[in-house]
Write a structure and sequence with these properties.
By secondary structure, this protein is mainly alpha-helical. The protein has one domain (2-258). It has helices at residues 2-43, 48-77, 80-108, 119-142, 144-171, 176-199, 207-232, 239-258. Helix 1 (2-43) packs parallel to helix 5, helix 1 (2-43) packs antiparallel against helix 6 and helix 2 (48-77) packs across helix 5 (144-171).
Length: 259
């Protein structure tokens, strides 16, 4: 009887090890794609028009994630007070970061274009990646198919974000080494949050979950409206440039429907 139990225990442990290794492989794909997108943009810096296309597309995908992933979960909890707390905290943090960034520019006497480290943009992207990682992790915790489709959709998003973030830093005259190091750190944040999503936070519910999601909702809306689209509109707007925003939204929508 004891031998039989040990055999089943060994088999269970073996399956768990295979599951963890498989999960690490799948969850590392978006992180690697983020790095590829970021590094690619440092060697082949996009021109103004292409940069605007990338920013519009990234904004559309992020807005789609907000609409299709965060909002339904927040609405499901039906907890208005916690929504207000998380949302106000998110907006407050983003506005504070913007103010600190502008004060730094004034003290250094530098115009905005010379800001090699766009703190507001990086923080917004960082929040986005953490939320994405948690979503992927929770998706895999719910099932392999759900996790895989969500991973594919978010991989598209992070590639666009990697390109957009790198392009903005290059535009701000950041060195190639600094850009690559920043992108690698962002990729690690994505990977760590994914592991946290599948291990620590998959059973999270109630007020804590609502506050976290509402914080992310506010931060991502700020990222789209006050960072990505503001930079995208530095290039004269044309109908096809505007259309790339909706193309990004539609792409994630179709991937979500495919789940």
């Amino acid at each position: 009887m004891s031998i039989k139990t040990n055999k089943h225990g060994s088999q269970y442990q073996h399956n768990m090890d295979e599951s963890i290794l498989s999960l690490l492989f799948y969850t590392s794909i978006p992180a690697m794609v983020l790095i590829i997108g970021g590094v690619l943009s440092t060697f082949y810096a996009p021109g103004p028009t292409l940069r605007s296309v990338i920013l519009h597309f990234a904004a559309g995908v992020v807005f789609s994630v907000v609409s299709l992933e965060l909002l339904p979960d927040i609405m499901h909890e039906k907890d208005p007070l916690d929504v207000v707390i998380g949302f106000v905290l998110g907006i407050g943090v983003m506005l504070l970061l913007r103010r600190l960034t502008r004060q730094k520019q004034k003290l250094e006497g530098a115009p905005p274009i010379a800001d090699a480290l766009p703190i507001g943009l990086l923080f917004g992207v960082g929040v986005d990646l953490v939320i994405d990682g948690l979503l992927i992790g929770i998706g895999f915790a719910a099932g392999a198919q759900e996790g895989t489709f969500l991973m594919i959709a978010i991989t598209v998003e992070v590639f666009a974000l990697g390109l957009a973030t790198s392009a903005s830093m290059v535009q701000g005259r950041a060195s190639r080494k600094r850009v690559i190091m920043t992108i690698v750190i962002l990729a690690l944040m994505l990977l760590i949050s994914t592991i946290a999503g599948v291990t620590l936070l998959r059973g999270l519910s109630g007020a804590t979950l609502v506050i976290i999601l509402s914080f992310g909702l506010a931060a991502l809306l700020f990222l789209v409206t006050e960072e990505l689209l503001v930079e995208a509109h530095e290039e004269p707007e044309t109908p096809w440039l505007t259309a790339t925003f909706f193309a990004g939204f539609l792409l994630f929508l179709l991937l979500e429907i495919a789940k």
